[in-house]
Write a structure and sequence with these properties.
There is one protein chain. The chain has one helix at residues 2-20; strands spanning 46-47, 51-54, 59-60, 65-72, 78-87, 96-99, 103-108, 111-117, 124-130, 139-147, 153-163, 178-184, 192-198, 204-211, 217-225, 229-235, 248-256, 259-267. The chain is globular and about 55 Å long. By secondary structure, the chain is mainly beta. It contains 1 helix and 18 strands.
Amino acid sequence: MTKSLSVSVIVIVAIAVSLTFGRTNYIGYSGAPGSKGTCASTCHGSDGGAIEIIGFPSEYLAEETYEITISHDGGSSIAQFNGSCRVGESSENAGELSAGTNTETYNTSGETNGIHFTSSNQNSGTFQWTAPATGAGEVKLYVAGLQGGYSGPNSEIVLVATEQVSGIEEQSDIPDLFEDISNYPNPFNISTVIEFYYNYEKPSNVRFGIYSLAGHVIYERYVYCSQEGIYHLTWNGLNEQSIEVPSGIYFYRLESIYGVTTNKMILQK
C-alpha cells in the first residue's frame, strides 16, 4: 500500500513540471528595471543561448516604428521569450511594443507592455516597436529567452538605442566607422564571408544589406557590434524568403547613422 502511494506522488510531480514548462499563456519577465527577474518560459536553464534580435536600431527617430525579429542562431527552437523596452535605467516604458508574427503583448505587475510568443517552441517571430516622443534619450530593449527543454540554455539580451537629434553632417568628429571591408571567396559559389573592422568604441547596431544591380534589397539583417574589432557575416546566396538568387553581381552595404560603406561581390554558380 505504501509503495503504491509513493508512485502516485511521483506521477503528480511529473505532471506539474510538464505544465510549468513552456506554457503558451505563461507571463514572465524580461529583466528590465522594475520587473521581477529574467524569467522566460521557466526560471530554470543554463547560460549560453543562441537567440538573436534583428531590427532594433542603435539610433532611433522619435515616434518612428521599427519591425524587430527574434530568432535563434543554432540550437533548439525558442520555448518562450519575454521582452520590454525602458527609458534609460528607469522602469518607465520607452515607446510602445505591439504584436507581429507569432507574438502577442501581455500586461502584468512590473511588465505593463511586455511581448512574447503566442505559443511555445517557435523558431522566429516579429514585433513592432514605436519609439517614444522627442526627449526620451537613451532607451534599452530587454529580452529573456529559453531554448529547448526545461533545463535548456537561457539568453539575457540588452540592446541600447540613443535618440537621433542631429544629422550625419554634424558628426565630423566621428572616425570612419568601417574599415578593411572584404568578402571571401569572391567570386563565390555557395556562400561567402563578409569581414569588416568596426572602428568605434561605442556599441551599436549596424544594418547589413545585400542589393541587386538594379538597387533592389535582396537580404538584410542588423549586426550588434559590442566593441571595436573585426566582425564576420555569412551570406549563402538566399533572399529574405530563403530562395536561391541567380548568378550575378551583388552589392553589400554596411550602414549606420555615422556613415555608409558599399562593396561588390560576384555570385557564380
